[in-house]
C-alpha cells in the first residue's frame, strides 16, 4: 500500500468516531447499523451486545461492509472510507481491555458516563480486518475514489 494513501486512511480513521457497519442476516438481507469504533492502525474495533442481531449475524458470516464519513454542505468536500472486512470476536482478555481503554480517548470532551464503562464480560468486541478499502475524495474530482487491496 502506498504510504500517502495509508496516511490518508489513518487520518480519516482518527478524525471520525462512528461508522455504519453492514452484516448479513440469516434471511440474506443486509443489516446496516451505526456503531462507535476505535482503531489501532488499519484494524478497527467495535462493541455490541452479546445477544445482539449483529453478533448473531457475525457468528454465521464474518464478512462486513462499512462506511466512515461525515455530513458536509460542500458537495466537493465529500470524503470518507468504505471497506470490506472480516470481523472476528476478540477473545483475548488483554486485547479486549486495550480496546476498552482506547474508547475514552476517542471522546476526550466526554465527561463522566452516567453508568460504568462495560467490561469484556458485558459486551462482545469485534476486530475488523480490512481486505479492500475505498477512499472517497470529491476534492480530487466528482466521485473520485482510490481503491486499496489489503
From TrEMBL:
Keyword line: Oxidoreductase
Gene3D superfamilies associated with the record: Electron Transport, Fmn-binding Protein, Chain A
Pyridoxamine 5'-phosphate oxidase N-terminal domain ranges (all copies): 6-134
GO molecular function, one term: oxidoreductase activity, acting on the CH-CH group of donors
GO CC field: cytosol
Record field: transmembrane: none
Pfam families on file: PNPOx_N
PANTHER family for the chain: HEME OXYGENASE HI_0854-RELATED (PTHR35176)
Protein name as catalogued: Pyridoxamine 5'-phosphate oxidase
Lineage: Bacteria, Pseudomonadati, Pseudomonadota, Alphaproteobacteria, Hyphomicrobiales
Amino acid at each position: 500500500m502506498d504510504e500517502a494513501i495509508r496516511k490518508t486512511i489513518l487520518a480519516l480513521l482518527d478524525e471520525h468516531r462512528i461508522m455504519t457497519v453492514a452484516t448479513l442476516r440469516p434471511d440474506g438481507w443486509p443489516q446496516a447499523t451505526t456503531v462507535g469504533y476505535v482503531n489501532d492502525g488499519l484494524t478497527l474495533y467495535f462493541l455490541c451486545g452479546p445477544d445482539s442481531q449483529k453478533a448473531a449475524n457475525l457468528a454465521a458470516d464474518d464478512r462486513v461492509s462499512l462506511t466512515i464519513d461525515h455530513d458536509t454542505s460542500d458537495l466537493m468536500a465529500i470524503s470518507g472510507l468504505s471497506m470490506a472486512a472480516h470481523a472476528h470476536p476478540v477473545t483475548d482478555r488483554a486485547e479486549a481491555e486495550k480496546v476498552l481503554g482506547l474508547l475514552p480517548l476517542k471522546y476526550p470532551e466526554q465527561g463522566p458516563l452516567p453508568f460504568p464503562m462495560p467490561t469484556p464480560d458485558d459486551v462482545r468486541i469485534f476486530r475488523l480486518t480490512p481486505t479492500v478499502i475505498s477512499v472517497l475524495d470529491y476534492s480530487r474530482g466528482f466521485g473520485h475514489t482510490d481503491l486499496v487491496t489489503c
